[in-house]
Write a structure and sequence with these properties.
The structure holds 2 protein chains of 2 kinds. By secondary structure, chain A is mainly α. Chain A contains 15 helices and no strands. Helices cover 69% and strands 0% of the residues of chain B. The chains are: A mainly alpha, B mainly alpha. At the A-B interface, α2, α5, α6, α7 and α8 of A face α2, α3, α5, α6 and α7 of B.
Chain lengths: 301, 305
């Protein structure tokens, strides 16, 4: 008590106190905090629901933390949840998604990086025309191009297979990735390229020995962009693969929105959580690079 | 940048030599194929076949504008377009406003900026399917928000957008805003950071309040950012599909149908290809209406490299 009384008599001297609780700060952090709650809430609800038993869900409040934590819904979502007649859980969709995402990411980045390099450093006649068409193509609704692609894939014998979908992802990932790589390679010092040319290095030599080692960050950005984008895709998965090859998002939707049976909300939320886990992990690990990746679309060349 | 010609000082026309720069041309083959076969070829193909009466398989029996007449006479398509308009206008305005306000708040040199940004942006990493399913659960009338509020004592509280045909599309809007605004905020934040610090100092010296500086100085300066963001949002709105499938499957009834869903179902479920082509052509038209003025403003008016 005595300590808190003492300063009163001394009057205002000493350094001006930093006003942590100024009106401006309360207002600012208050709003940000509230908004942050709104954004964080669904993730919280997802996690909490997936850890409750069904009786508890029926009785209680979706926002209350689980009284009795159970991992049963996660196990069931992973290994037993049913889509139609198949009851082997989300694990099948997970592995399908892995089988789709890995080659798609590799192929699309390989094509786009070489292409961006050709556009940045080895401009040939007409290159910019094709590039402009490619960029404008990124804005065309997919719906206009999906059926012609079905025909093309059918002719190639790839319709319904993983590789068909990999090809589709590479095609539709090309505009943004090419733009990303072209802009990056254009920003590298030109003297480097010229010096290598003088030393007699060719197209592939310069790409592999000079450009690649210098562009690790942009490859990481492209990978983040593609992994999240392809993992989260639904439309192409449902169109270009057959049910046995459905990616995780499609299977998740089929599990949760199936009309038969009693709705098990905890299993549904566990399944949703499992599906979201891969892109969320990528997001939380990559941090600022993720921002750079998604903002790449907005950066004009 | 034209390394090939500058050192020769060639001013005139380049001779036609198809083998020059061969490796670059080979490297560009995937791009050329994608641009010409899929983007241009596919688009033209779909537009052409929208004038046929293809059903299960595409066939060349042209029927003029009949598919379009039927399309615009279908109540489901009308509802889809209406929903797209409501959804489009609302999400454009809301995401621009919310995105900008959040960016402006984060730009006040606050602490924990990274934490806030991480929280605002994480929904963007999740798929529309996940987003739709989570919000379907939160908006569940028996166990979700409505139930929670009723338990607090407000017994007549009603908040059940997903089962009310009149407002189902707004339920989807809530989820879409949650998922997408973080991204818009990031674009806006990048734009705000690009504004010269001196502008702010000058405004402060002149005694202009912060909100006035934003509205009359900063926002007009950020015009390019706003336009780009607008185009990105608009292109995304036309594509909206997964979210609706996951959250309401177009229901109740046809209350929350959207064009992309109509196209998919006509093409792959009800074996009415040409109807799907006609609908997708209308979607293309909608995008062109946004895209062409933008391209004109961006590239037509002033030449830039």
């Amino acid at each position: 008590m005595t300590e808190s009384v003492a300063p009163v008599g001394r009057g205002p001297n000493g350094p001006k106190p930093r006003r942590v609780f100024s009106r401006r700060n309360i207002f600012l952090y208050g709003i940000l905090g509230l908004v942050a709650c709104y954004y964080a809430l669904p993730l919280y609800v997802m996690v909490v629901t997936s850890l409750k038993g069904m009786p508890e869900i029926r009785m209680g409040n979706i926002f209350s933390p689980p009284v009795e934590v159970t991992f049963q819904p996660w196990v069931k979502a992973w290994a037993e949840a049913c889509t139609g007649l198949n009851c082997d859980g989300l694990s099948r969709g997970f592995w399908n998604s892995v089988m789709i995402t890995v080659p798609s990411v590799v192929l699309s980045i390989a094509i786009a990086s070489v292409n961006g390099y050709a556009l940045a450093n080895w401009r040939f006649k007409g290159a910019n025309v094709f590039f402009t068409i490619l960029i404008f193509g990124a804005f065309i609704p997919y719906q206009v191009m999906i059926y012609p692609l079905v025909i093309i894939l059918r002719e190639m014998g790839l319709y319904g297979s993983f590789w068909g979908l990999v090809l589709v992802h590479s095609v539709f990932g090309m505009p943004i990735l090419t733009l990303l790589f072209r802009n990056y390679f254009s920003s590298l010092p030109e003297e480097l390229f010229k010096a290598a040319r003088v030393d007699g290095a060719g197209f592939w030599g310069i790409f592999l020995k000079i450009m690649l080692p210098m562009s690790v960050p942009i490859f990481v950005v492209a990978m983040i962009l593609q992994i999240t984008g392809i993992w989260n895709d639904f439309l192409f998965g449902v169109i270009y693969t057959k049910p046995a090859n459905y990616p995780m998002t499609v299977q998740l939707n089929n599990i949760v929105n199936s009309v038969q049976g009693v709705k098990e909300y905890n299993v549904n939320m566990a399944a949703t959580m499992i599906t979201a886990l891969v892109p969320l992990t990528v997001y939380f690990i990559s941090g600022r690079l993720f921002v750079r990746g998604i903002a790449a679309g907005a950066v004009k060349g | 940048m034209n390394h090939q010609i500058t050192h020769k000082g060639a001013q005139g026309r380049r001779p036609f030599r198809p083998l020059r720069n061969l490796n670059a041309k080979i490297a560009a083959i995937p791009m050329i194929l994608t641009a010409m076969v899929v983007f241009v070829g596919g688009t033209i193909w779909t537009v052409v076949y929208s004038f046929t009466n293809s059903r299960l398989l595409p066939r060349e029996q042209f029927v003029g504008l009949k598919q379009y007449e039927r399309l615009w006479g279908t109540s489901r398509w009308q509802v889809s377009i209406e929903n797209l308009l409501i959804f489009g206008v609302c999400s454009l305005v809301l995401s621009l406003v919310i995105g900008f306000v959040l960016a402006a708040l984060l730009d006040q040199k606050i602490r924990f900026e990274d934490t806030f940004r991480t929280i605002f942006l994480y929904p963007f990493a999740m798929s529309f399917i996940v987003t739709g399913l989570v919000w379907q659960w939160i908006l569940n009338p028996r166990l979700g928000v409505q139930n929670v509020v009723r338990d607090l004592g407000w017994d007549s509280f009603v908040f059940d957008p997903l089962n009310n045909a009149d407002i189902a599309i707004y339920g989807i809007l809530i989820a879409a805003i949650w998922q997408g605004t973080g991204f818009i905020m990031c674009l806006m934040l990048a734009g705000l950071r690009g504004i010269d610090e001196d502008i702010w100092k000058a405004a402060r010296v002149d005694g202009i309040p912060a909100w006035k500086t934003y509205i009359f100085i900063v926002i007009p300066m950020m015009r390019p950012v706003f336009i780009t963001t607008l185009v990105i949002i608009a292109a995304g709105i036309v594509k909206v599909y997964d979210l609706v499938v996951a959250q309401t499957s177009g229901g109740p009834g046809i209350a929350s149908e959207v064009p992309a869903k109509y196209v998919y179902e006509k093409m792959f479920q009800s074996q009415n290809l040409a109807q799907g082509f006609a609908a997708s052509t209308m979607m293309l038209l909608a995008v062109l209406i946004v895209l062409i003025p933008w391209a004109y403003l961006e590239f037509g008016g002033r030449r830039r490299d």
